[in-house]
Amino acid sequence: MKKHNFYAGPSILSQYTIKNTADAILDFAGTGLSILEVSHRSKEFQAVIDEASALVKELLEVPEGYSVLWLGGGASMQFCMVPYNLLVKKAAYLETGTWAVNAIKEARLFGEVDVVASSKDANFTYIPKNYVVPADVDYFHYTSNNTIYGTEIRKDPDVPVRMVCDMSSDIFSRPIDVSKYDLIYAGAQKNLAPAGVTIVIVKDDALGKVDRQIPTMLDYRTHINKGSMFNTPPVLPIYSALMTLRHYKELGGVAALEKRDLEKAAKLYDAIDGSRMFVGTVTDVADRSIMNVCFVMRPEYKELEKSFVDFAATKGIVGIKGHRSVGGFRASLYNALPMESVDVLINAMDEFQAKH
Ligand SMILES: *Cc1c(COP(=O)(O)O)cnc(C)c1O
Questions:
Q1: Is the CB of 190 under 6 A from ligand 1?
Q2: What's the 300 CA to ligand 1 centre distance in angstroms?
Q3: pLDDT of residue 297
Q4: Ligand 1 near 147 CB (within 6 A)
Q5: Spatial CA neighbour of 336 closest among 24, 95, 10, 45
Q6: CB-based contact 117:131 (threshold 8 Å)
Q7: Is residue 216 within 8 Å of 222, Cβ to Cβ?
Q8: Is residue 191 within 6 Å of ligand 1 at its C-beta?
Q9: Which tens digits make up the pLDDT trace of 324-342?
Q10: How many helices (H) and strands (E) does the chain have?
């Protein structure tokens, strides 16, 4: 049976990425060797990382003066690397979910942290508005898409300071004004590649301002100076990322991807809003994520949640169980998910509702 993959991460990749990665595992770039067994310093792999970095710059229109890095350690490693390298005295953070909480915890190890607003009071089901970012902070950090709770900030905020953003689960789903940021990071396993690599886009002259000693591996300058090859980079995920980036370019770039993503999300949210059984957990329409759609069953149907997951599985629908801190369902609609899968999910919801 055809599967419809709604996992939140690691998550669906395009067949283009998976097939080309499989080919390279058998024979990489005509070398007669697997990509799993070649030196990261071979000219063939150098070409891979160079093209991948160039495509990130092209697709996101990264201005001059920024470097693109491919690092290990996941987005979670960036929670400490960011303040290690950028927090001189004080930073502002927006608390919109578990990942933001984790980032704040690490930043506090390095300096003063001003949590400018939080939506913790309502289990992170909305994006705080009208908060003030002080002009005297070193940077303002936010999470653009809250993967667990299904909220998203889709417009680059207007604040009086330079920004840092965790874009792990919505990078390449909209155009970004990179010039407003000192640093953007994204774990690859949501919208780009298998787990194991994190993209960092960093403004070169934002670095070198802190006085503290930074361990070599945690210093962005190490990786800038060595083109992400100070040590062995995650070769296979970078190869897959290149395949995805080529595919994104073929599809028309991030503006075209955004259009498709908006259509998919609108269709599913409409189905949820129009149903008597299901209800979205994010009530402010403006805050709803187009990447992770979170919903539950209305109180009178609550005990049917488990059986809907089982019913959906009979239609090939995989990965719709909500995160344990929200419950219910979460349908992740990353770039690689086709509209067909959204239609199958909506049909399953309709059919289940008709039966009960
Ligand atoms: C998944 C996720 C993370 C954690 O990523 P790891 O690579 O597992 O460390 C951080 N932030 C966001 C927004 C995420 O979606």
A1: yes
A2: 34
A3: 97
A4: yes
A5: 10
A6: yes
A7: yes
A8: no
A9: 999 999 999 999 999 999 9
A10: 9, 14
Ligand 1 atom with the smallest distance to the CA of 167 is 13
Contact 319, 241 (CB under 8 A): no
Backbone angles phi and psi of 37, in degrees to 5: -130, 20
Place of tokens 């300058």: 221
99 CA to centre of ligand 1 in angstroms: 7
Can you tell me the distance from the alpha carbon of 293 to that of 286, in angstroms, rounded to the nearest whole number? 13
CATH of 15-251, one of 3.90.1170.40, 3.40.640.10, 3.30.450.20, 3.30.360.10: 3.40.640.10
- Residue ID of nearest Cα to ligand 1 atom 7: 74
166 is known as an active-site residue: yes
Q: What DSSP string describes 239-282? A: HHHHHHHHHHHHTTHHHHHHHHHHHHHHHHHHHHHT-SSEEES-
Question: Is 70 considered catalytic here?
Answer: no
**Which residue owns the Cα nearest ligand 1 atom 4?**
75
The CATH number of the domain covering residues in 4-11+254-355: 3.90.1150.10
Q: Which of 156, 166, 170, 182 is catalytic?
A: 166
- Within 10 angstroms of residue 63's Cβ, the number of other Cβ atoms is 11
CA-76 nearest atom, ligand 1: 9
- Confirm or reject: Cβ of 166 under 6 Å from ligand 1: yes
Could you list the mean pLDDT of each consecutive 10-residue stretch along the chain, which spans 356 residues? 97 98 97 97 98 98 98 98 98 98 98 98 96 98 98 97 98 98 98 98 98 98 98 98 98 98 98 97 96 97 96 98 95 98 98 96
- In the chain, what are the domain boundaries? 4-11+254-355, 15-251
CB atoms within 10 A of CB 131: 15
Q: Which of 232, 237, 228 is nearest to 67 (CA)?
A: 228
In the annotation, is 99 catalytic? yes
